[in-house]
Design brief:
Layout (H helix, E strand, L loop, with lengths): L2 H5 L9 E4 L15 E5 L3 H8 L14 E2 L17 E7 L8 H11 E12 L14 H10 L6 H10 L1 E3 L14 E3 L26 H13 L5 E10 L2 E8 L7 H27 L6 H9 L13 H11 L7 H16 L1
Parallel strand pairs: 1-2, 1-4, 2-3, 4-5
Antiparallel strand pairs: 5-9, 6-7, 8-9
Helix pairs in contact: 6-7, 9-10
């Protein structure tokens, strides 16, 4: 299967499709004859002006049906079309979103029940995100509660200072260490504004491995924040992996089943990161005590990862705040907002 075949694997030939951010490289061009609509942050003329002189084929930039200028993505599409799309395509889009949960909620508004969301995501082990930690659901929740429309200072710093290159390449199909690990200097300016009216600075805000992405979807689904389930996955090819999600309200599992699934995914994440570590440093990097401990208890028990409800988590954070602190008032207000959002 080639790249496009993986992305379109669960997209029916007669599907009404919305491709988000196709820019100069659409997965499903209008010339295919299929019913496809495009949504981008600029119209075709603006995109051609943006990419002029960048060595791309400007002829591949197609008319843009819906232009998103800010706010929830689904609001850029006429309400008459909400719930009418059979499939959506996001190729290297989600990791750029300041509010991924908000973007996924918009996708759920636009798709019919049972519709599919097909994603191509960068595998952080094989690209300029190689030194960054995988993103956890807490970061997504924080961005969503804040209604973030611009990237925060942490994200801007990591994009500017922690991004790396292999020579001039920003992606490389190997876990071996890059031959020329360069520091990408894009001029981090402390404290760069992140207000909603500040100029948008594009960044990767989420860093995935295949298993860490599945964990985000699973945990978000169990908390009622993400209305999707994983329908199909393909392993990493080059420096990207492919996932198709299906719009459906995930069934609420028992606490024991949640714990087992989370532990399984965490173990997969550790195995993926170990592959990267072994590729960079060689397999003999763990200390002897660590190896002996692992040999003594090779299979962590699911009960060690005891799930608690989101409301319990928020209450614990609230109780831990000092009684007299400048952060107490704002933090308590944030906790109340988060409680309300999670309870709905």
């Amino acid at each position: 299967m080639d790249r496009n075949a993986r992305i379109l694997d669960l997209v029916a030939p007669d599907a009404r499709v919305l491709e988000v951010g196709p820019s100069f490289s659409p997965i499903l061009p209008k010339a295919s004859g299929r019913e496809v609509y495009t949504l981008d942050h600029a119209d075709a003329d603006e995109l051609k002006a943006k990419y002029a002189g960048h060595g791309v084929d400007l002829a591949r930039i197609e008319p843009v049906d819906f232009v998103w200028r800010g706010g929830p993505v689904h609001e850029a599409v006429p309400s008459a079309l909400h719930g009418s799309f059979d499939a959506m395509i996001l190729s290297h889009v989600l990791e750029h979103s300041p509010d991924p949960i908000g973007l996924l909620k918009s996708a759920a508004v636009l798709l019919r029940d049972g519709g599919v969301l097909s994603l191509a995501n960068p595998d952080k082990r094989y690209c300029f995100d190689a030194l960054k930690p995988v993103t956890g659901l807490g970061e997504w929740i924080e961005a969503h509660v804040e209604g973030r429309q611009r990237h925060g200072v942490r994200t801007l710093y990591e994009q500017s200072v922690v991004s790396v290159k292999n020579g001039e390449a920003i992606g490389w199909p190997s876990t071996a260490p890059p031959s020329d690990l360069r520091w990408v200097e894009t001029g981090f300016d402390w404290p760069r504004p992140a207000a909603p009216d500040a100029p948008y600075v594009d960044c990767h805000a989420s860093y995935f491995t295949p298993a860490s992405f599945e964990l985000l979807v699973f945990e978000g689904g169990q908390l009622g924040l993400i209305e999707f389930e994983v329908a199909k996955t393909f392993p990493t090819a080059g420096f990207e992996f492919f996932v198709t999600l299906r719009k459906a309200r995930p069934a609420r599992l028992t606490d024991e089943a949640i714990a087992v699934r989370r532990m399984e995914l965490h173990r997969r994440i550790m195995a993926e990161l170990r592959e990267q570590i072994d590729g960079w440093l060689g397999p003999a990097v763990a200390s002897t005590p660590v190896r002996e401990a692992a040999a003594a208890d090779p299979a962590p028990r699911p009960e060690l990862l005891v799930p608690i409800t989101a409301v319990e988590s928020v209450a614990a954070v609230d109780a831990a705040l000092p009684r007299r602190s400048w952060v107490k008032g704002p933090a308590k207000r944030l906790m109340r907002r988060l409680r309300r959002r999670l309870s709905h």
